[in-house]
Amino acid sequence: MEIKQLEYFVATADHGSLNKAAEQLYTSQPNVSKVIANLEKDLGVALFERNSRGMRMTEQGKMLYGHALTILKNSNMIRSLVQKKTGNYFSVSGYQSSILAKLIADIYEAHKDQNVTFGFREGTVEEITDDVSEHISEIGIVYLAHTQLQCFKHIIWHKKLEFFPLAELSICVYLGSHHPWYDRESVELKELSQLKFIEGTKDFFAMEHHIERISVGAVQMENLNNAVCTNSDYLITSMLKHTDVCCLGIDFVSREYEEQGIRALKVRDCEKFLTLGYVKQKKKDLSCEARFYIRELKKTLSAYNVLL
Predict the structure, then answer these.
(1) Ranges for the HTH lysR-type domain (predicted)?
(2) Domain-by-domain residue ranges, the chain?
(3) In CATH, which of 3.50.50.60, 3.40.190.290, 3.40.120.10, 2.40.50.140 is domain 169-267?
(4) What would be the CATH architecture of the domain defined by 3-82?
(5) Deepest in the core among 86, 149, 225, 249, taking most CB within 10 A?
(6) How far is it, in rounded angstroms, from Cα 107 to Cα 296?
(7) Rounded to the nearest 5 degrees, what angle is found at the Cα of 269, between the Cα atoms of 98 and 164?
(8) Contact at 8 Å (CB) between 218 and 249?
(9) What confidence tens digit (pLDDT) does each residue in 78-122 have?
(10) Tell me: the pLDDT tens digits for 188-238?
């Protein structure tokens, strides 16, 4: 089995047509057909049902499809890594946060003459820890509910990672000037059911244990009125600025939010039940870029008086 065969298989499955797959792959229809036929021969199964309406995956084809996507993703990642220009590469993975993104700008300014390429990847906790485990990012910034720390540490032990806590945080409600509660200083936990929320990226662990979403811990998200669902930080900001929709998040608010007229209302009767920290690979010394990033993150946390 070759990578090329999987590329042709996925393209055909996505388009349901040999001709359209050939157009995407910049080759001929007979060549795509030949490659698919050889893959079926190698595997000893039929991957497609062929009819007048095109190509439809068989059950065996559907089983292969998800695995093929994973293999191609990893193949592209390997190709990208080995083809990088000479010089250092430093990447951070983290949750959606303008504060974390701003620190990349800061580290770029401090190291822009040192031939370093910088990266920042947003994702769920599982994706963040996978990035660090797979050497895509050197460090990952996560926050977790206290009740889930033990399970989280068990999971990252299997990924050969270490977790270093930095701060204890509570939740707050982000809202903009279009919201009727904009001039308030705080809300009560029981009042959250009266608000309309933006639901961000869903974050579940699906490994040895199935545990609840970690983004807000003690608050039962299923009881909230989620009016908008998105994984776009830009859309979240736009909705907060221009509508009466709120966003529930950690009480660690970017100055850029405040400059855009977005406020954070504290949740009065909610204790600090979230731990923010970073993960790194075990027994691996941090680069000077990683140490700089963590040092600047600590300074930012210290300014909010939440540093451990």
Answers:
(1) 1-58
(2) 3-82, 88-166+276-303, 169-267
(3) 3.40.190.290
(4) Orthogonal Bundle (1.10)
(5) 249
(6) 9
(7) 45
(8) no
(9) 766 665 544 588 999 998 787 888 899 999 998 888 888 899 998
(10) 888 888 899 887 665 543 222 332 333 344 445 556 788 888 777 788 888
Q: What whole-number distance in Å separates Cα of residue 70 and Cα of residue 130? A: 13
Decide: 170 and 274 in contact? Cβ < 8 Å. yes
Q: Single out the residue of 150, 156, 162 nearest to residue 207, CA to CA.
A: 156
Distance between CA atoms of 225 and 85, rounded to whole angstroms?
48
Q: Which residue has the tokens 């993703």?
A: 73
State CA 232 to chain mean position distance. Answer: 11
Residue 59: both structure tokens together: 């059950």
- 88-166+276-303 carries CATH number 3.40.190.10: yes
Match 């990924």 to its residue by tokens: 159
Which of 148, 99, 106, 101 lies closest to 251, judged by CA? 99
Residue 108, helix vs strand vs coil: helix
Whose CA is closest to 57, among 87, 36, 34, 86? 36
Assigned token pair, 106: 């800061």
Element (H, E) at 129: helix 125-133
**Which residues, at least 6 apart from 33, have a Cβ–Cβ distance to it below 8 Å?**
18
What does pTM read for this prediction? 0.64
- Would 88-166+276-303 and 169-267 be classified into the same CATH topology? yes
